[in-house]
Amino acid sequence: MKVFLATYGCQANERDSETILGLLAEMGYEETAEEPQADVILLNTCCIREKAEQKVFSYLGTLKQYKQARPGLVIGVCGCMAQEEDMPKLIRRRAPHVDFILGTHVLHRLPDMIRGAGHGAGLRCDREETGGIAEGLPSARRYPFKALINITYGCDNFCAYCVVPYVRGRERSRLPQDVLEESRRAVAEGALEIMYLGQNVNSYGNTWGAAQGRGGFAALLCQAQEIDGLRRIRFMTSHPRDFGDDVITAIAECDKVAGHIHLPVQSGADRVLARMNRGYGREEYFALIQSIRRRLPDAVLTTDVIVGFPGETEEDLQDTLDLLEEVGFDSAFTFMYSPRRGTAAALMEGQIPLEVKKARLRRVMEAQAASSLRLHRLLLGRELVVLAESWEEGVLSGRGEGNQLIHFPGGPQGVGCFHRVTVTEAQTWTLKGEVRGGE
Ligand code: 5AD
Ligand code: SF4
Question: Ligand 2 pocket: which of 11, 158, 159 to mutate (most atoms <8 Å of CB)?
């Protein structure tokens, strides 16, 4: 029996996909990359922007032919879209060949859903409004040498544009012993690098009073540092409002913790940041960058930017462009604001026309491209410690400590190993290099 799984969206979804494949492996399913061979086709969806949702519907459209050819084929929709209130109605109307919808809080019920699918039952729907923490689910890691590990689920920040708190529920932190136990197990199974995941890793443990110094995120990093055999620790995403000095200290003191901080700024304008409900202003963001740079001069900073948030003026956009220039991010994910049903911003006055958003996005992307190229050129001749993730035609590809993507000559046996790579060519999005010594 075979399963085809399509994953959309962020790292949290990548991690859920590993659980989905783990659950299916226990049922005797093998993954396939070819839809026509699959007995089960699953979509792990994302609804953070409208475009992601449109992609899912257009893909579901293409699946109709497979279902017609093989009525026994099971098609299921999991992930964030499954949690949206009107999704059952929409799927019944736009993709009646889907067998089930399974919410993010009840992933463990996937095997039951698959067993019960078909038999003319129509669209079955299993989801819950809120979730706890399901420990001990199986997982089939995509890369044996790289483990994604959740430390928190959900989000309590309610940024005005964002649907995540509604679909992923209230913020819950896993206990440090559970996170560390999963980390040790991953390392015992061959992981060299761990990525700790949370919508706001800096609020890890707030529910048990970590803010008062009882075992928050910084403490977790220091404990993970002690795991024998683990080479590198990454984390994502940091929230500028909650990023404390203790985390800067942990990064400085723990040599396994990568000096890469993904610190979404979203906008450079105070007015916009306030309307977004981000909880910090431009000057506070700069102050944080300064304290990071003072203590971690080599840290690589990356960010997320949204253009065209309701009410954003030309002047506000200029503030964002100035901020990008002044900080100098290694890379940035740049988005056009996309109104999401149920969020505060969707109802705000001053929605920006698509054409204006597109033009602003172009300007932000151009500014970022210039920064990326400038920073990448500074790396020429420097050596990066790279974990190779893939190989194709004599070229290994992997990421440096700062998450820079670099390609360098090597053999397929180099995948899953660390290499010391000297940067020989700098481009906007990627680097090229070569290994000059041993590891
Ligand atoms: N429109 C555009 N971008 C969004 N993001 C989240 N919600 C929206 C939205 N409605 C972006 C933010 C966030 C990243 C994961 O996605 O920049 O940091
Ligand atoms: Fe969304 Fe804000 Fe939570 Fe990030 S911190 S998931 S942008 S609500």
Answer: 159
